[in-house]
Amino acid sequence: MTSAAPTPAYRRLSVEERRSQLLEAALSLFAQRAPEEVSLDDVAEAAGVSRPLVYRYFPGGKQQLYEAALRSAAEELEHCFAEPLEGALTERLSRALDRYLAFVDQHDAGFSALLQGGSVVETSRTTAIVDGVRRAAAQHILDHLAVRDPGLKLRMTVRMWITAVEAASLIWLDEGKEPSLNELRDWLVEQFVVTVVATAGRDPQTAAVVKGALAGERRDGVVGSLARRVLPVIGDAARLL
User: Fold this and answer.
1) Domain count within the chain
2) Residue 147 is part of a domain; what is its CATH number?
3) Smallest Cα–Cα separation from 222: which of 193, 182, 181, 183?
4) For the chain, N or C: smaller number of CB within 10 Å?
5) Inter-residue contact 30 to 66 (CB < 8 Å)
6) In the chain, what percentage of residues exceed pLDDT 70?
């Protein structure tokens, strides 16, 4: 006769562990549904605790819990672009986008509600949290470009690309997660290259930065492949001018 498996011993969670458990449960729910559709009862059930316990950790109720979950997600997103400043720029961007797009994939509904706005729980504080992610991402990109004092055109170029990444992520979700993540990542990296090259034609600082960055690229890498596909198109168009 086979004996029953022993029941795991109950382990009392520390304050920080319990708080992390509640935030993880909340983030999981916000990833599936818009914030206004998630109740504290839903969070309590997902975490396997009572509603009063949720209130004990988040006495401000759903708004406080949402902001805390959003801040936790924001910290994760900010770290997506943190990459060692070594190797080809496009390879670094590819690894950063892999992490960013994986987050989008895992938190699709919540990501859409967060960036599209309109949630009943949206406040100036939640807006500031989201804007903080954008600014942190832009600063990481400027660090990858080795620019300490970026001018207006370069700053605008980087921030426009961050906006394009967000927009592309939302469209990707709206289109049923097509194309594949790898194709979307490569497409966004190529758009970064094209965007900074276009700005380089107008701004000496960006031109110097681009020359330095491209010098570290491999011939068989993103930039080489992009050039081989785009230059014939540009050449055909140029002959018509």
Assistant:
1) 1
2) 1.10.357.10
3) 193
4) N
5) yes
6) 87
Highest mean pLDDT among 17-26, 57-66, 160-169: 160-169
CA dihedral 8, 12, 18, 22 (to 10 degrees): 40
Whether residue 28 lies inside any domain: the answer is no
Q: Give pLDDT, residue 80.
A: 87
pLDDT (0 to 100) of residue 120 = 47
151 within some domain: yes
Q: 141: domain range?
A: 69-214+223-235
Whether 78 maps to a domain, the answer reads: yes
Quote the crossing angle between the two packed helices 124-144 and 152-174, to the nearest 10°.
120
Q: What is the 3-state secondary structure (H, E, C) of the chain?
A: CCCCCCCCCCCCCCHHHHHHHHHHHHHHHHHHCCHHHCCHHHHHHHHCCCHHHHHHHCCCCHHHHHHHHHHHHHHHHHHHCCCCCCCCHHHHHHHHHHHHHHHHHHCHHHHHHHHHCCCCCCCHHHHHHHHHHHHHHHHHHHHHCCCCCCCHHHHHHHHHHHHHHHHHHHHHHHCCCCCCHHHHHHHHHHHHHHHHHHHHCCCHHHHHHHHHHHCCCCCCCHHHHHHHHHHHHHHHHHHCC
pLDDT at 149: 93
Q: Give pLDDT, residue 9.
A: 40
Any domain includes 50: no
The identity of residue 206, as a single letter, is: T
